[in-house]
Amino acid sequence: MDDGVVSEFEVFYRAMASRDPRFDGRFVVAVTSTGVYCRPSCPSRTPQRRNTRFFTLPAAAEAAGFRACRRCRPDVQPTSPEWNVRGDLVGRALRLIAGGGVDDEGVAGLARRLAVSERHLHRQLVAEVGVGPQMLAISRRARVARMLIESTALPMSDVAFAAGYASVRQFNHGMRAAFGCPPSELRNTGSTGSANGDLVLRLRYRPPLAWQALLKSLATRALSGIEVVSGRCYRRAMRLPHGAGVVTAEFDGPSEVTIRLVLADLRDVTAAVARCREIFDLDADPLMIGDDLGSDPVIGPLVQLQPGLRVPGCADGFELAVRAVSGHQATLVSQFGEPLREPMFGLTHTFPSPETLAEADLAIPQAETIRALAKAVCTGELSLDRGADREESVAILLALPGIEPWTATHIAMHALGDPDVFPHTDPELLAVARQHGIADSPGELQRYAERWRPWRSYAAMHLLA
């Protein structure tokens, strides 16, 4: 400290010493005397300052030679919500890497997706999080592999390739580097699932989570043959990079959701997990959002009624966009959807692909809009995933025939994951605003909603809940 100014190191050290779980995921603590990195809330003895280092992400700690603590498991925590919120180059890159982007396309392909050079991408990531895209991908593989080892009965060779390793030798080396032991030592005797693609995994989130409201929202829009909501469960068919998949999610714990995956190809584990996290908005920080919105006279009481309310995402941005513009979704699925090899739980198809609908003979009123959407996605002009440039994607959507501003905002909220958009022209939202006496017109509502930045999407969900 100097002249009353507290250094960043001191801020992190005090946060660690307080063992406040709210800091978990925002940074990790590495201890040079043990070679281990931990969560800030780890119950182990507080290390001396001279033996302490702080890193933004686990990948940076691993690159510096530290391994994950076996007691507090910093590798299973949701990462900093900052990266879930930010729409800049680094935020987009981190979301794409988390979804397996480097494994699928390599660093060169990732850079092309982001319209920058590999060098510029590497430089920006190192400046912000301490490591480049390749090390981030290596760390992601290790975390996925450990999740599969601990939660399933898959043979180690299958775990290696499902997590994205090129060989079993690379897998063994990577696991020793990340966790300080061979993969076999990480396996629980009570591992569940089977070796035929049926996997049971547990995804952590920051509580609270208003799962009843989340499932109610998903049930309201559930598409027959694609989705089923029943009790505490959500089931859905997905079109994944290497084949179809079916997910069953059950909200059965205070800080985790149990998912069961049936995959045609185990290489789709990473993509399936990433999409589940997006559907249920599991990377949000409800306490931070609640603190920011809680003092508002309109939204504050609603936050108290339903703490942990999330903005539902989607399994496929193109699917959500088509469903937003068309009232004939069931017809599209029955005529152009890809049938599942083995229907289950009332799920029969995956949603039609952009390639299929771009050339389909659609006898519905929104045919021109759907074909325009599909062609824009097929050509790469339009991206509708969490790695997209949000402003650019919305501008492209609004230039397509039949896409209204409300529709583009809806897509930005639920497909692109923008936490700070507000569908002020939505008739239902405007009616609620009138009930609260805050606005009588879309323009008034848009101006009033400025006070809810940077969480206008969450404010909209509270008003509509």
TrEMBL record:
EC number: 3.2.2.21
Protein name as catalogued: DNA-3-methyladenine glycosylase II
Record flagged with keyword Transcription regulation: yes
GO cellular component: cytoplasm; protein-DNA complex
SMART domains on file: AlkA_N, ENDO3c, HTH_ARAC
Transcription regulation as UniProt keyword: yes
Membrane spanning residue stretches: none
GO biological process: base-excision repair, AP site formation; DNA alkylation repair; methylation
InterPro entries xrefs: Ada-like_dom_sf, Ada_DNA_repair_Zn-bd, AlkA_N, AlkA_N_sf, Alkylbase_DNA_Glycosylase/TA, DNA_glycosylase, HhH-GPD_domain, HhH_base_excis_C
Annotated SUPFAM superfamilies: Ada DNA repair protein, N-terminal domain (N-Ada 10), DNA-glycosylase, Homeodomain-like, TATA-box binding protein-like
